[in-house]
Design a protein that fits this description.
about 100 residues, alpha+beta, Histidine-containing Protein, Chain: A, five-stranded antiparallel sheet, 3 helices, 5 strands, about 30% helix, globular
Amino acid sequence: MIQYFVNGEADMVVEKNLVINNPHGLHARPASQFVQTAGRFLSGVTITKGDETVDGKSIMGILSLGLECGTEIVLRIDGDDAEDAFSYLEKILIAHE
């Protein structure tokens, strides 16, 4: 389920629970692709696994989560281009490589 929020005036927040589907997890190559894609957008991007939340624009942060196949995460994108960013970033996280 995707949740949309409006913060203040124009900020959009998109948040969704996802499961990592890549049999190898979110290893260096897809994590790098995620960070590069996230960097194209102005919105803030975070990934939460359990009690740990990291900046989705930080390769070290993402790799520190140890996202293996089957891991449940929360992808949160906050900003004016949140919907566009979400459409690209979700595909990377749930891809079956």
